[in-house]
Amino acid sequence: MGCGSSMETQSNPVVTEVSTEFRQQQNGAANIIDEYVRLDEQISKMEGSCPGPRMATAEAWIEHLQGKHDAMLGLDGMEVAQRRQEEQQDTEMEALTLSSYPAQKRDGNQIVANTPTKDLAQLAYNLGVIGDARKASMHEDFFANLSESALYLLSIRYYGELLEHTKERLKTLAESYAELNELYVRQDGIIAYISGGTYMTRLEETIDEQLETARDTRDKLGSTLEQWRICGLLLRAAANSSTQALKQWRQLSRIIDPKQKLQWALDCRSLLHASMISLEAAQLALPHVELKYMSHRQVLAVKHCNTYLITDIANKARYEHTSRVFSTYEANMSKTCTWLYETFNNTLRIDFDKSERTVSRLSKTLRDHRAEVFSTARK
Hints:
This is GL18643. Helix content is 80%, strand content 0%.
């Protein structure tokens, strides 16, 4: 992860500056060695969070999310380049029109295309589909089409939010990585000033080689750790949203006012969709791991119920069926989230911690040895 051997001797103006700085100090030996030890301890601590490997994983995840988001918007080639140029110019795409969507989503009833969610609610209220099972049955396909269009818009919004959140994560990691590299440069300057860029003992060279190998192993695990972190956070969000949605849905049977009932239903629909988008993204983040307790068939059942949610409220049998589907999904979503964290803690976390202990041990051994050799050399 850019741990780079501190024995690299390429010309570096910052290294030269550091060397000059210490050369000008009084009582240089003690000051330089103390500074070397301080920097090495700080480096070891920062390296433990693997900002470099995690940053690389975050960059790849952003690229993946950007591709997904662009595909949902129906953008490719020149359209993507133009869109990104607009983003750089701070042009916000807050009003998404139907012309931005893929062709297959533009087909069909234009009323579906141009009806926002708030108008959908008013339309459902006017047609009486919330409290009348017969009217709900008459209009269920129409409202299903409206829901599909609204949920597609919501998917674009959720993936956009996820993309922005990941960019913030990348910014934090990039700042940590830049800070770590600055410490490397200062430390290399000290070593170059004392040793001239060569190993002073055979033992120093051997320990440094072992340390680089251990760091490489630790950093690879650190990169994978970030993937599991992303997946875990998304699954936790999916589980939380499904729990909130189920509570909303169960409350509907107690609500009398049609407008309030409709609003709660729409909120429930959004929460369930957010849960399924989070689950979908979690699977994308960790594609080679099969998530236990959650099947594709079950997700399809939830999507179907969510699509027909508005017109199923008035039908007691359908309402109860949807309740069972949502309840099972919520329970399994919670199990899946728990299973992932338990699996992580029992496997990857143990391997990473073991690798990090090896790196810490070798770092301290090399640090102590160099401090002793450097002290002798300065005398």
